[in-house]
Write a structure and sequence with these properties.
Strand order of the largest sheet: 6-7-8-3-9-10
Helix content: 25-40%
Number of strands: 10
Radius of gyration: 19 Å
Strand content: 25-35%
Structural class: alpha/beta
């Protein structure tokens, strides 16, 4: 198995006045090429800090982060920024309201010098069509699009520079349930077609079952469980994981039975 991303002994400490806050503590984690790893946990668990470290926004306090076996420098080079892209939580705030959709999608092509300059407009149209939007949306402004359409544009922008790893930071939390399902389907289709690798950051376990191959569970900066998605939802190892799953709204009879079984197990072990 090829590890596209590898974290070895990664910790992150923030200094606040005279106090130190350990946001991540000795994280050892590999992400295989082509997989979707979901990173879950409550607010303050360290999952967003992990995303920022992978993206190079913060350097780790200790440990190393490697991409394709190469340890990434604290100050990322252009080639690294091209290979690892971000899709943010709020698609409206992630797009410049003063730029047209086409200009926002063309920017990474210009920055990274991709394709023939005179044909980059055509590439923008192809990117829009790839995420299920008409090519003529290039002339529209972000404010004229729905939340789901803006998130599709944000995904297209992440793909514009032919990235290999996409960090998705709560990409569906600002969308309603129906639009969430459509965006998740799009992400699955793109991963299959392009051979992408995802690190999917979320606090909502209900979306994890539909996209992730494995789940990494974080609690207070520590990685407390890492297992295939099926095991996480059928027989989780850690008590914290069981509590998270028990808090997920249930719909089907199978989900009710799973919740009741996990709650009974949790009460027995308490």
């Amino acid at each position: 198995m090829i590890h596209l991303l590898s974290l070895q002994g990664v910790s992150k400490v923030f200094v606040q006045g005279r106090h130190e806050v350990r946001a991540l503590d000795n994280i050892i984690l590999d992400v295989a090429e082509g997989e979707c790893l979901a990173v879950v946990g409550e607010s303050g668990s360290g999952k967003s800090t992990l995303a920022n470290l992978v993206l190079g926004i913060y350097p780790p306090s200790t440990g190393t982060i490697a991409f394709r076996g190469e340890v990434l420098p604290a100050k990322r080079e252009l080639v690294h920024r091209r290979a690892i892209q971000l899709v943010q939580q709020n698609p409206l705030s992630s797009l410049n309201p003063q730029r047209s959709i086409g200009a926002s999608l063309r920017l990474p092509l210009d920055v990274h010098g991709l394709g023939e300059r005179g044909r980059r407009g055509d590439h923008v149209g192809q990117l829009l069509e790839e995420v299920g939007l008409p090519a003529d949306y290039a002339g529209r402004s972000p404010s004229s699009l729905s939340g789901g359409e803006r998130q599709r544009v944000a995904i297209a922008r992440a793909l514009a520079c032919e990235s290999e790893l996409v960090v998705l930071d709560e990409p569906t939390s600002a969308l309603d349930v129906l639009v969430q399902a459509r965006v998740l389907k799009l992400l699955n289709d793109l991963r299959s077609r392009r051979g992408l690798t995802y690190v999917f950051i979320t606090h909502d376990l209900s979306v994890v079952r539909n996209i992730a191959d494995r789940v990494a569970v974080f609690e207070r900066g520590r990685l407390v469980e890492l297992n295939p998605t099926e095991k996480i939802f059928s027989d989780p190892d850690h008590a914290y994981t069981r509590r998270l799953i028990c808090a997920v709204p249930v719909v089907t009879a199978d989900e009710v039975r799973l919740r009741d079984r996990l709650m009974k197990k949790e009460n027995t072990s308490a």
